[in-house]
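Supplementary Methods, section 5.1.

A reviewer requested that the exact input to the structure prediction be made available. We therefore reproduce it here, unchanged from the version used in the analyses.
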Amino acid sequence: IQPACDVIFGAFFGDSKVQGMGVGVPASQWHNYTYPLIATNMFNNVGIRMCTANYAFEGRTPTNYLKRWELLLGDATWAPDWIAVQPISINPAGGYTAANIDPAIKETLRLAALSRARGTKVIFLASSPDAGSDTTQDNLRKTTNAALATAGYLYFDVDALCTDGATPARLLSAMTYDGTHYTRTLQDLAGARFFSFLYNVLSL
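The structure derived from this sequence is encoded token-by-token as follows.
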């Protein structure tokens, strides 16, 4: 997806947390109801035209969704104004382990450098707690978030909006319906924060 008219163009990559999972019968939120798209809608509502492509996908590992980013970069004209990426995920076998995290971070940094060279503002998205993580796994997640925050790229800390701060950390009850995925409450809160974040990042 690439807009044909003059708009701000964004894209984001990650697993189901970033994609936006529908939940409830009837649904209290629908599939792809997610904070980057909520923020995009807010821009359009105030007269700032923005188009955002959702390349996140449920159940996928960084190996999968980072490959999507790499394939898109194969088109030399593909240069969104901003890209947001969740560098690590709970989805690989074993969850948050050094063996899963290290190659994901290495590839994220490689692709981020390529995109930044094209003039794209690259945003790293924090990973948030998961109900199944033990203390060792969660500490790796926290350490990785801290490293991403100081990696020289932009950083959006969704974790700070939803963690209970415990060890191991868990999502606040109002922010999740299953211990991993986000409720509409969190998506709306993060969407408003992401709108303000992008507004400043893009100097609008």
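The chain has a mean pLDDT of 93. These observations are discussed further in the main text.
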